[in-house]
């Protein structure tokens, strides 16, 4: 008599489902905040009587601090536990959001956005690391996909909430302050997240790592567990601490100049600033990863490319809808929701593909498939849509299909996490993802500059700029994933540092084996 097949969701315990929900809501808040700021730039500029250009720096503000937030909360997660990092990051996010709602001036609002950036960075590193160390190994791709889907769901909800709040306050004396109400609404799910996280258990792999480390300490009194990233950079030698502190401060100042005063910098100055910023990031990567730093370099190349492609699509598609396609505000909000819903679907689907065929292969499949739908999204213009409903329907279908495919990048935290042992995974994932996130902040500015300097003089609209940039970076990503760039670089520079896990698309190394690798 054959055994009854067990469905995958029955293999997940109640506590593991609870952990998934607690991690997902953090990403939901991030997506809600990301799209919210994009929609509120105009009313904020009107409230404080400032140019729209200055108001738009609120987007960049979060990125100014995120790279350091990934390092800081990553180190907290590796030293004190994933749960501690998740709770403290959401508290910082909550504080920043509260200040935003009642900010008396633009610069108070700007400072609050810096704190939100730190909290967001903590969510990026801790939530995905926590869930990939909590769920069963053969289901961890879909667990990460579910969590990252929260970001896209937050983006979709934001567009509809914005439309609702604007319509309710339209014509009232509070209409000009509707953005404050929006930030207040954003605080509500924060309290829900804290309530959900209050009773979750520590990540299973992290707890097992501590047990294995204690066994090694009992057997070898000279054994010292690996230091967290913050301790490596700022607490290991006076000279190193001074140099790293100074480089961190210089990097922050340069980021302020690059994002807030870009109009005052010429091309050479901007390039030199980015060289110094990247040198700092690589220096920190090398100190933390030691001889395995080529892995970090390969990850940064892939992640920066992904952000340069996805950043303009997320930030500038609403502008494309209104300026090139001449859609109404309501239609822009609806298409923005379609955009994000496509990503929700992709995040969920890719998890199942990743668990079956492997993390890297799933991301490669999605990026390749996205190119099939990219051209139709920008080839179907308003004149074609006016000829019949079929063209509008085809546009929406292609837009959703493209976003579904491109969101296979949701597995990047899992892909990155496989290159780190449990002792350094939280910081490794958090720092590299958030440092590469600077590309997402740079992407809209770069796209608009190219549109104005190159494409508009040729009579081509914003859509052509987006198409060319996204196509180029997609090809870079496909090549990097096809050759598995991170371990390929390590093999070229330090082949003796390669591990069997580096070439595998699946988790094949136990926590006990990882602790032994840390000891070497």
Automatic annotation (TrEMBL):
Transmembrane segments: 40-64, 84-104, 143-162, 182-200, 242-261, 267-285, 297-317, 337-355, 362-382, 388-411, 431-455, 461-485
Record key words, sorted: Membrane, Transmembrane, Transmembrane helix, Transport
Subcellular locations according to the entry: Cell membrane
GO function term, MF aspect, one: carboxylic acid transmembrane transporter activity
UniProt cross-references to InterPro entries, sorted A to Z: MFS (IPR011701), MFS_dom (IPR020846), MFS_trans_sf (IPR036259)
UniProt keyword annotation of Transport present: yes
Top-rank taxon: Bacteria
Main location: membrane
Pfam families: MFS_1 (PF07690)
Topology versus the membrane: Multi-pass membrane protein
Gene Ontology cellular-component annotations: plasma membrane
Domain Major facilitator superfamily (MFS) profile: 19-489
PANTHER family assigned to the protein according to its UniProt record, in alphabetical order: CARBOXYLIC ACID TRANSPORTER PROTEIN HOMOLOG, SIALIC ACID TRANSPORTER NANT
Protein's recorded name: Putative sialic acid transporter
UniProt source species: Limosilactobacillus antri DSM 16041
Organism lineage: Bacteria, Bacillati, Bacillota, Bacilli, Lactobacillales
